[in-house]
Each structure stands twice: as C-alpha cells, then as structure tokens.
Amino acid sequence: MRGIVSVGGYIPYHRLDRREITALFAKGGGRGTRAVASYDEDTTTMGVAAARNALASWHGRGSQAAGGSCCDDLWFVTSSPAYLEKTNATAIHAALRFAPQVGALDFGGAVRSGIGSLRTALVGTGTTLVVAADTRDGMATSLDEATVGDAAAAVVVGDQDVIAEYLGHGVATDEILDRWCLPGARRSRTWEQRHGEVSYARLLRSAWQSALDATGLKADDIDRLAVTGVNIRAIRRNTRLFGPASGKRIDDFADTIGNTATAHPALLLTSAIESAGPGEIIALVAAADGVEVVMLRTTEAIGAYRAEAPLAEQIKTGAPIDYGTFLSWRDMVTVEPPNRPPPNRPSASAGYRRRHWKFGFVGSRDRSSAMVHLPPARVSEKGGAVDDMEPVPMAGTTGAIVSFTVDRLVYSPSPPVVFAIVDFDGGGRSPLELTDVLPCDVAVGGRVEPTFRRLFTADGIHNYFWKVRPVLGSNEAAASAVDPDAQGA
To answer: Please, are residues 478 and 445 in contact by the beta-carbon 8 Å criterion?
Structure first.
C-alpha cells in the first residue's frame, strides 16, 4: 500500500491584522490575519520546521523511522528560494541530520511544483520526504499583500505505516498567463482575474472527472475536499463544479494564514489528515497553470496518529505584529539600523568543518564524565580527557533560561536582540539568541526549544544556525515562579 506516512505543518509565530493596512492607507487590507515569517526566517528554515514536525509525528508512532536513513529522498519545493543555483534542500538535509546516501533535490520555482512534487512521490517508489514552503509578498494595499501568507508543510510518502492510502489522481494542463514572476523580481504579477476564472473552469471540471474515473469514486463519496489555487476568484466561482463534494470543503485558512501558494496543497492536506478518522476519502485539488487532483483514503492506522504540532494549535498561539514592522521586514520601508557595523560574510570552509554543529546542532559528551559540551569539543572540560567524546544531537532537547541580556546596540535587522544562557535538559549549556518573543516576556526559568533560523545574510551568503524560542505556554508559568508580583505578593 502506498500513500501518506506522516504530515507536518509550520505556521510562523507572527500575524498581521489586515485592518492595519486599511488604517494606514485608507484602502487595501480586509478582515482576518495573515501569517508572517520573521526577519530571521526564509523558506529553508520554515521547511526545516515543518519537516521536523512530520518526522517527529512519524517517529512517535513507534515506527522504524528513527535515524538519518529514514527516507530515501528529500524533495524541497518553493517559489521563493533562498538561493538560486545552489541546492536549498541540502541545508534542510543537514539540519535533519540525514545520512549522505539520502538524496536532496529542489523542485523548480513554479507554484504548481508544490502539488506536482507530491503527486510524483505518490506514484513513485521508496520513502520520500516532500517539503514545501513559501514566503509571499505583494505591493502595499494590493490584493496579494492582504490575501497571501507564509508557511511550510512536509509530507512523508512511502509504502509502510501508511495513514492515508493513495487512490489515484487527475490532471489537466494548459498554458495560462495568469500569474508570473520574472527571474530576479521580488513579487509576482497577475492578469485580470476574470480571465483565469473562465480558463480554470474547464480545467477543474476535466481534472476532477479524471480523478473520479481513475478511482471509481463519486462526488458524494468525498468526506473532505481541500481546494486551493493562485487565482482566488477562479476557485470561489467554480467550487460548484465538484457537485455534492462542494459541501465537504475544509477551511482553506484564508482568514487566518492566507494563501501560501506552493506550500498550500500540502498545508491543506496536513489539516485534513490531522482531523480525519479512519476510512475517510480526502480529495486534494490545486489549480496553478492547470489543475491537479489527488484522491486519498485514510487507513485504520490514522487512529494512532498524533500530530507533533497540530495546525489548529499553531494558529491559536500566534502573536500580532504591527504593520510598520512587517513593512520593514519585507524591505518595503527602510528604518535606521543600529549604530554598529554589519557582520562579515561567513566562511564556507569553517562552516563545512563545523557543519554538524552549525546545521545539525550536535554537541559532544565526554564518555568518562558524561559532561555535554556545546559547541562540541575535543578536550573535556571536566577531567581533561582528549578525543573521548560521543556526538549528542540537541535539536530536539528543551531547556531553561538561566540568564539573559537585552542588547539594543548589536547589529540586527530587527533590534533589540535577546541573548540567553540556556541549560538544556540532560546536560549542556550554551549562549543562544532568542526569537519569536518580546524582551518584556523573557524570564529566568523560561522554557525554550531550539529552532533553525537565519542569523544574517552577508555578501549573498545566508548564515544559518540555531536559536531558541519559548516553548508555547511555558513562559507564563516560569514568570510567576520567579516574580513575586506575578503571584499577587
């Protein structure tokens, strides 16, 4: 049986209230919120987060998936890559500590590659981790600015531990000048949406009927319908084409996250699977330069499936970001930087020598004293043993803040910067930068977890490393424990 083994989504912590756009410009905006990637996030870092969630959910079911060879291939797809020419999937590969024999490939910059890579994996062989991520932009007050969003999703496709069996698909392709972006341009452009509304109607009808014919299903057999596309009007006006299945359409996150383009099919699939029971038929429809329809049926194994970070919880735990900060992060306005020189470009050779620490966040443990060293060391701080260390992966380990500093002078795209000394559970202490938190919310004793981020970019080189972020729901309790005023004293 071939199908979906595990899924995982990642929604950035920050949310922009669309009403702030209207408040500033007296036009644009709308209702609801959109997800916003932080200044230290890009599609690669978000892809790592989604992949870690998917793999953690798989490992948590007691499968044999643990270790660096759990997958045969890693495919990464985005319309907004951090690099061109250089493979972005290799950074995700390194952060996940995959074995060298696991392939890592980027799937092109077209939005359709999101659903296309997933379908290709489903009709293929072996175990493939498909990761999709996008950061979306639009000119101020534009429809894109208000309706798009940033997110990532990951899907493990294989033949064992299947929670959703692949049944078949339907495809309809045509050349439509609907949305495009020239190489080097920051934002995509669109044609009149009425053109796409008419063009996609025929393609939606054709692909939908092909999928029903291929699987022997009827429209009223569908339990959950997930529909997405780059032309919002075309989707809204043509939903009726799915017949009785139209009434089974799941939330497309338009009011909470926004349309995440390349990542959206996998994100909606993740949502459908996280809430589905055994024996349910899921239809996934994606319209971009044509239409792809994928049919799946959940198995009995889904009863034991537990999502590592359910999308519903991630949506509820987001925090607001003001419109000015959003514009600054997107380089649409220029604010005065800290009065410090920007960092030098990172060294390729030094980064390669320390790649297990830099990308995998792997420390070392002295075999004689059991002391954990962060970063890894050759000589033990306790006992002085030399080259008697074993690797200790720390990316999945939580810790507590023992001290912190708020630095308002250090160079940063979004000052101030909070640096913390973190004691990790089971041993190991390291100074790390905090992210996804306001300085006023940081407290000694606060619980934190590692997250893969981009420290800075210099001379066109992204300097990736690990920061820590609060474990959601834990810092309030920590603040009460260390602050008498918080306890009503």
So the answer is: yes
Single-letter residue type at 294: V
Q: Name the residue type at position 307.
A: A
Q: What is the pLDDT of residue 69?
A: 65
d(CA 418, CA 429): 17
DSSP track, 177-234:
-SEE--TT-SS-EE--HHHHHHHHHHHHHHHHHHHHHHHT--GGG-SEEEEEES-HHH
Cα of 416 vs its chain's centroid, Å: 25
Total H helices, total E strands in the chain: 13, 22
How many whole angstroms from its chain centre is CA 307? 14
Distance CA(313)–CA(102), nearest Å, equals: 32
Q: Which two tokens stand for residue 106?
A: 């980027």
| Residue 483, pLDDT score | 41
Buried b (16+ CB within 10 A) or exposed e, 78-105: bbbbbeeeeebbbbbbbbbbbeeebebb
CA 412 to chain centre: 23
Residues with pLDDT less than 70, the chain: 61-69, 473-489
Q: What local confidence, expressed as pLDDT, does residue 66 receive? A: 45
Residue in 77, 62, 60, 61 with CA at minimum distance from that of residue 128: 77
Tokens encoding 206: 């054709």
Q: Which residues pair with 173 in a beta bridge?
A: 290
The predicted pLDDT at position 198 comes to 85
Q: How many Cα neighbours within 13 Å face the side chain of 450?
A: 26
Q: How far apart are CA 385 and CA 381, in angstroms?
A: 8
Coil, strand or helix: which one is 22?
helix
Encoding tokens for residue 480?
A: 């009460």
CA-to-CA distance for 232 and 197, rounded, in angstroms?
Answer: 9
> How many Å apart are CA 281 and CA 218, to the nearest integer?
11
Quick one: pLDDT at residue 135?
A: 96
Close Cβ partners of 44 (under 8 Å, ≥ 6 residues apart): 76, 81, 82, 88, 91, 92, 133, 454, 462, 464
Q: How far apart are CA 265 and CA 7, in angstroms?
A: 12
For residue 355, the 8-state DSSP code is H
Q: Give CA–CA dist 489/475, Å, rounded.
A: 19
Angle at 76 between CA 176 and CA 363, to 5 degrees: 160
Each residue of 5-37: pLDDT tens digit?
A: 999 999 999 999 999 999 999 999 999 999 999
* Residue reference for tokens 């299947």: 162
Q: Closest Cα to residue 17, out of 445, 410, 361, 318?
A: 318
Which pLDDT value is given to residue 473? Answer: 62
Structure tokens at 67: 């270790």
Task: Report d(CA 177, CA 364) in Å as an integer.
Answer: 54
